[in-house]
Amino acid sequence: MAAVAKNQPKSMRPKWFAWLIIFVGIVGLIASFTLTVDKLHVLKNPHYTPPCNINPVFSCGSVMITKQAEIWGVPNTLVGIAAFSVLITIGACMLFGARLNKRFWQLFQLGALGGLAGVVYLFFQGVYRIHAICIYCMSVWIVIILLNWYTLMWSIDNKTFSLPKSLDKPYKFVRRHHLDILIVIYLAIIALVVNHFWYYFGPH
To answer: What is the distance between the alpha carbons of residues 29 and 40, in angstroms, rounded to a whole number?
Structure first.
């Protein structure tokens, strides 16, 4: 592990990755907790307007009252509080020197992909079905994509799974331009949102 880490780019070294996991956990936990509090206010008072209701497009209140805001009756935000708390714990353990084995990172990768699948589903539902976006949900989308992107690179660099030899050169390109590719992904998401809500954002 030490030899692999030494040859890694700075963005993939253990402490940097640990801080990334903690950052993702903190952002997600704040967003989940804030939405949970607002949800409780809405349950107490149906006429309550959450502070994150900025306009008809960016409207947390419109999203949190839908069926998509729950998993089998459990609010997504409670799932988020639990999941992001675990992320913070994992990152902290790494900072304190914990060495997590290959099997752990394989499961971590699967968990991250599960979170990404949830983000894709909620993005589609929010934009194309509910026709409203929660800004706190957006912050979760951003950090979950960030987590998946760098977890994938971490897994490859630390031999959690092996790439075919034919992909060595493409991966070297990806590793050199990891931030550029991530920015392109975010710009593509912004473009989808702006395109769908052009009736609101476009010239009138």
So the answer is: 16
Query: The pTM is what?
Result: 0.89
Hunting for tokens 């079905």 — which residue is that? Answer: 129
Cα dihedral sign, 3-93-71-190: negative
DSSP codes joined into one string, 191-202: HHHHHHTHHHHS
Taking the C-alpha atoms of residue 184 and residue 149, their distance in angstroms, rounded to an integer, is 12
Report the alpha-carbon distance of residue 126 to residue 115 in Å, rounded: 16
Partners of 133 in the β-ladder: 58
Angle formed by the axes of helices 178-196 and 135-157, nearest 10°: 150
Tokens 């107490």 locate to 44
Instruction: Quote the pLDDT of residue 3.
Output: 40
Nearest-angstrom CA–CA distance, 73 and 184: 36
Closest by CA to 149, choosing from 176, 113, 173, is 113
CA atoms within 13 A on the CB side of 47: 0
Indicate the average pLDDT of the chain.
88
What's the half-sphere exposure (Cβ side, CA atoms, 13 Å) at 196? 18
- Identify the residue whose tokens are 């989940």: 32
